[in-house]
Amino acid sequence: MANVIDITGLPPERIVFAPSPLAELGAALHALSEPGHHPGLHGWVTATNAALKTDLADRLCEADFLWRSSRSDILLPAHPASTLAEELDELDKIDDERFVAAAFEISCSATYTRATPSPLVDAEERARVREMAAARGPRQAAFTDRMLTDPDGLRVWLRRLLEDCEDAFFGDIWRRVGIQLAADARHKTELLRRKGLAETLPATSIALSLDEAQDGSGGVRIMVDKLARGRTTAFASPGDPGVTFLPTSFGWPHLLVSHAPGWRPVLQYPVASPELPAPATLELTQQRLEALGHPMRMRLCRTLARGPHTTGELANAYGITSPEVSRHITTLKKAGLIQTRRRGRYVLHQLDLQVVARLGSDFLEGVLR
């Protein structure tokens, strides 16, 4: 389970770490529309939503499918600037067909990894995006119709909406978090220069790693540990090869990957908070869930949660053989759910309560990543 970005032959200087006010605004808007994804931001979400003027809140509701389920590609710039105005200026330079196609590249689109025509010129694609928007409500459907019938007017409306967000709440946020994100980007850039990408990726996110082919082909790929699958290359945009990494303060637990055909790959990664424990990998989380899926192992865990026990004690308690208990214990140990220690000639097993307690949040982090 991974997104794959082939970077074979890419010069190191084409890998960029930089903060983006537009991307951070998108992350903040997502948190406002889906507060359940971000329990740590509950206080900020409540206060900000309560302070929004009715007109601004209504307009945000109209356009929220651009950042609610996922983040539209137009909110993840490949070339970040220092101000929101500069990034919006660059967005204005994109032609209508490309802009509208990118605006509708959201997570529920099954055609994301395939080049598709713009809904402005293709009737089938136009019908598809209208159906997607209609499923989200009448306001979103009306927004979509406006974008399809009057893209220029809608783009002006959307820019004004984002500017009003900056005036209402995001300007203060960016003055505070922009410094932190710039510092993180500088740190990652220096780490890349001194240690290379193989060390920089896992320092950026536990979900990132470098895969270098061992067959002599020289292939190099960035692996992104996500439930969603996707494949692209750093040369997807022939005139603009590279990969852009955008740090975010509002993004956890999401790790976003923009990899539409013809666009430079962009990853938005959360800047880790020191109080957040490192989540388990998706593979390990799946292994733990499968280990607990067996009814006998569940019963053994009930006893092991109460204190340490030997294999013989467990066999006697549940009326099964010691070898059968050992097989179940081995499965639980491989999944990292059991702690084992020796006391004299006895080997004692006990459930690791901290690991089990984190299993739900590890699962949630994995599916939201």
Whole-Å distance between the termini?
Answer: 12 Å
Average pLDDT number: 87
Kindly give the count of domains: 2
The beta-strand count equals 10
* Strand order of the biggest β-sheet: 3-4-1-5
Radius of gyration: 24 Å
Major sheet: 4 strands, mixed
- As a percent range, the share of helical residues equals 40-55%
Number of helices: 14
The fraction of residues in strands falls at: 5-15%
The secondary structure category is alpha/beta
What's the helix-strand series? EEHHHHHHHHHEEEEEEHHHHEEH
Flag low-confidence runs.
none
Overall spatial form: globular
Structure commentary:
The structure is a single chain. This protein has 369 residues and is α/β, with parallel strands linked by helices. The chain has two domains: 3-270, no CATH class; 282-368, Arc Repressor Mutant, subunit A, CATH 1.10.10.10. Helices cover 50% and strands 13% of the residues. The chain is built from 14 helices and ten strands. The protein has helices spanning 21-33, 42-51, 54-63, 84-92, 96-103, 123-134, 138-149, 151-195, 197-204, 282-292, 295-304, 311-318, 322-334, 353-368; strands spanning 3-6, 15-17, 208-212, 220-224, 230-233, 243-248, 256-258, 266-270, 338-343, 346-351. The protein has a four-stranded mixed sheet with strand order 3-4-1-5, with helices on one face. A four-stranded mixed sheet has the order 2-6-8-7. A hairpin with a 7-residue loop joins strand 7 (256-258) and strand 8. The longest helix is centred in the middle third of the chain and has 45 residues, at 151-195. The protein is globular. The two termini are 12 Å apart. The mean pLDDT is 87.
